[in-house]
């Protein structure tokens, strides 16, 4: 049901009946390692290319999520998924293996919540019984496509972010056991003219702020409604900027706990990742691994995940174009929302 | 940015123009230590050159080569070292610390070629390795050749002597 200008209220209470988060070796050294279902020791996953490794991560996460929700692959009506690769090959190729009707989406790193919002909407509107939402990224494929060869010796500036190797998949169903996807706010493309692809946090922060404010405007609730608001991958630089923008806009973010997935994934002291983590797999694995675990344990009951994406391409930034950004917010709650 | 009111309008939309935002974001970038980077580049770059010099001395004293003959095998040894360090995934870590110190010497050139070759190996030997090996190093070759052309013309016109 449309709420306000750009939000959906999922009044039929779709449920996340199962979710899986699988990561690579570097993420396994981070503080959230215990919350992931599988930590791979080999960045290549025994495959002969990085691209195959990424797709393998996604297939494994999909199979695990299906298993956890206690359904069969055949009962899934739609897979909604995307990734960072050109022509979203990781998702499409995994969909080829899974043989599930497939809706490919692209929102760069915001794909995690874009896919979940669409999957929840399909289920909520009774267009699907079971919908699967997915997002994945791989550090080496992202480096290769967007930056330099992985082994190339270039010094990264302190604003640079490290793309997460990971895949997160969730299964949304009409009823069952698990947290509810209660609402979503779809963001608009915001471009404040940042051109530096090594400073995506600063590029994405305005989009995150825009979507978060739109969410509360549309639902007429206060930030204090949530136990936690978490942005996707703004990392240190973008997170600080977002906080300042909230203050400037007199938005009472201090009513709740505000965090960023990009700052939760790695240990800054030990892992030397400059500003923090990024990638579609970042918010997907942090949400489906870490945050859902905390919700199961009732440490958190209402969260708003705002996945942020920088919609640039290697060609667009080389041609000097600015970086358009987007953010999509999805709320997940243990209890049904009272409206 | 255009302020468009939608919904309740309780919270203000973007309160900055893109120009203001860019200036604001610039001030929030963690500063890069130019001085520290220069020192590190000097030390690591210098160390690579000292290593090269040592290798050259070895060729001169152990293989009894003339200094001018020893320079080619010296460069080859440095390239091999760089390629090995790139292949085992160490060179990029050195580079994060060293910056220009590991990028400028011949080892940096070797790293740029080797890393591109490794990266595109999965796309085949011809279109992958062959087609992409000079992806980063190519511009060095192009502009090196262009520069050499102009230096050659200057040499021809002014004829300042030197080796022919």
From TrEMBL, chain B:
Q: Which UniProt keywords apply?
A: Membrane, Transmembrane, Transmembrane helix
What top-level branch of life does the organism fall under? Bacteria
Q: Which residues cross the membrane?
A: 34-55, 75-91, 140-158
Keyword Membrane annotated: yes
Tell me which Pfam families the record gives.
SpoVAC_SpoVAEB
Is Transmembrane helix set as a keyword in this record?
A: yes
PANTHER family documented for this protein = STAGE V SPORULATION PROTEIN AC (PTHR38450:SF1), STAGE V SPORULATION PROTEIN AC-RELATED (PTHR38450)
Full protein name:
Stage V sporulation protein AC
């Amino acid at each position: 049901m449309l709420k306000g200008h750009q939000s959906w209220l999922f009044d039929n209470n779709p449920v996340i009946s199962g979710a899986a988060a699988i990561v690579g070796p570097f993420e396994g050294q981070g503080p959230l390692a215990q919350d992931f279902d599988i930590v791979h020791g080999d960045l290549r996953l025994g495959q002969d290319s990085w691209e195959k490794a990424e797709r393998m991560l996604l297939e494994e996460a999909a199979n695990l999520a299906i298993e956890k929700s206690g359904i069969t692959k055949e009962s899934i009506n739609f897979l909604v998924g995307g990734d960072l690769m050109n022509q979203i090959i990781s998702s499409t190729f995994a969909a080829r293996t899974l043989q599930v009707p497939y809706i490919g989406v692209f929102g760069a790193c915001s794909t995690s919540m874009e896919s979940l919002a669409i999957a929840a909407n399909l289920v909520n509107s009774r267009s699907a019984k079971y919908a699967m939402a997915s997002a994945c990224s791989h550090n080496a494929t992202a480096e290769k496509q967007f930056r330099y060869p992985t082994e190339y010796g270039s010094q990264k500036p302190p604003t640079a972010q490290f793309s997460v190797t990971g895949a997160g998949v969730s299964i949304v169903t009409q009823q069952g056991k698990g947290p509810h996807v209660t609402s979503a706010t779809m963001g608009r493309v915001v471009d404040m003219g940042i051109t530096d692809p090594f400073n995506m946090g600063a590029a994405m922060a305005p989009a995150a702020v825009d979507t978060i404010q739109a969410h509360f405007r549309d639902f007429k609730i206060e930030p204090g409604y949530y136990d936690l608001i978490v942005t996707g991958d703004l990392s240190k630089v973008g997170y600080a900027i977002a906080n300042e923008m909230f203050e400037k806009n007199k938005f009472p973010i201090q009513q709740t706990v505000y965090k960023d997935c990009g700052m939760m994934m790695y240990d800054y002291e030990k892992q030397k990742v400059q500003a923090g983590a990024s990638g579609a797999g970042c918010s997907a694995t942090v949400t489906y691994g870490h945050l859902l675990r905390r919700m199961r344990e009732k440490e958190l009951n209402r969260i708003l995940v705002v996945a942020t994406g920088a919609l640039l391409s290697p060609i667009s930034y080389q041609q000097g174009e600015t970086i358009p950004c987007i953010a999509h917010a999805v709320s997940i709650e243990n209890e049904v929302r009272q409206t | 940015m255009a302020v468009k009111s939608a919904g309740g309008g309780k919270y203000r939309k973007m309160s900055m123009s893109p120009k203001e935002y860019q200036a604001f974001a610039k001030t929030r970038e963690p500063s890069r230590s130019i001085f520290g980077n220069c020192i590190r580049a000097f030390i690591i770059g210098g160390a690579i050159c000292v290593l090269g010099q040592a290798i050259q001395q070895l060729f001169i004293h152990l293989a009894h080569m003339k200094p001018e003959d020893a320079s080619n095998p010296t460069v080859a040894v440095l390239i091999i070292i760089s390629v090995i360090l790139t292949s085992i995934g160490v060179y990029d870590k050195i580079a994060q610390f060293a910056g220009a110190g590991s990028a400028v010497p011949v080892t940096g050139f070797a790293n740029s070629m080797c890393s591109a070759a490794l990266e595109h190996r999965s796309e085949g030997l011809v279109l992958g390795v062959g087609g992409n090996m000079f992806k980063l190093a190519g511009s060095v070759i192009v502009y090196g050749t262009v520069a050499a052309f102009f230096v050659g013309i200057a040499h021809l016109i002014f004829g300042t002597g030197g080796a022919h």
